[in-house]
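pls ignore typos typing on phone
zinc ion + seq
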Amino acid sequence: MLLGAVEGGGTWFRAAVGHADGTIQDSTRMATTAPMQTLGAVADFLAAHPITAVGIGCFGPLSLSTTSADYGKITTTPKAGWSGVDVRGFLAQRLKVPVAIQTDVTAAAIGEHWLGAGQGAESLAYLTIGTGIGGGFLVKGQPVTGRLHPEMGHLPARRQPDDAFPGLCPFHGDCLEGMVSGPALAARWGVPGEQLPAGHPAWDLSARLLADGLTTMLAVIAPDRLILGGGVGQNPALWGPLHTHLAVAVSSYWPRLCITDWLLRPDLGEQSALLGALLMARGARRGME
Ligand code: ZN
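k done
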């Protein structure tokens, strides 16, 4: 009984077929171009295997209310041509199997909860910091969604004294994504984040902003564990300052919080979201049985 998994990103789509225990049998990737071209290639790959269900972790924002007429569609995205695209409906129609969909970062959280650093966590938040900042939140392994889905990257970021950088978010300016994402680092410091050496002031400032954001998450959803992923999020130069500032931020109100047990890196590398999508496919198939 094969299952299909799809990870949809702004640059690449990855598709895989695998088994209910998390083993991948075959996989491929295709550039994210025009929607029908990209999704058509995904469908062609999956259709060549006898799959019984598909899970999708896709970039968003997505409509995820199952009672909504636009369930499974991308809503408004700056990605040209992708606003309103019915990702779930397209694959369900082509493949004639149950299809589950979540955001890519929620799929990563599901993968890490299943087989990675989130195993056994009562509740799990996953925050990825790269070209943008995305967040997903699971309670007992189940994604928390409602009217929308979590958008933790757009939390307000408390401005540091004398910091005049306006931020890059087209919606909010100086939200967390506008201040700490990879493009924000590059715009502020003039070089890509991966070229900023350890000890550069960029990392201390990013860590201050991020420690504030993580403390806000702690106050609102109190996740049992928090996984920090993405190219910026996993940069070793960030982790020292982040631990320092987070320790200060939580010390008075959450003195019993052990940061090294709470804040973790992903265990599954590039596979978190694809494995999460595989588990979602397993759930979608069970839902039909
Ligand atoms: Zn924003």
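The chain has nine helices and ten strands. Residues 154, 169, 171-172, 175, 177-178 surround zinc ion (CB under 6 Å). more later
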